[in-house]
Design goal:
single chain, 39 residues, mainly alpha, 1 helix, 0% strand
Length: 39
């Protein structure tokens, strides 16, 4: 038996972590470019 409710929760949880990782990567890139352009 597949618990679809649990699967959906897991998918949203994974997506949340994926978005958080993307945002932290995006912030690192912005800081990196700021350092390059300010110097």
């Amino acid at each position: 038996m597949i618990n679809t409710k649990n699967d959906k929760h897991q998918i949203s949880f994974d997506a949340y972590h994926f978005i958080k990782r993307c945002l932290s990567f995006y912030k690192k890139m912005l800081m990196f470019f700021n350092e390059i352009f300010l110097e």
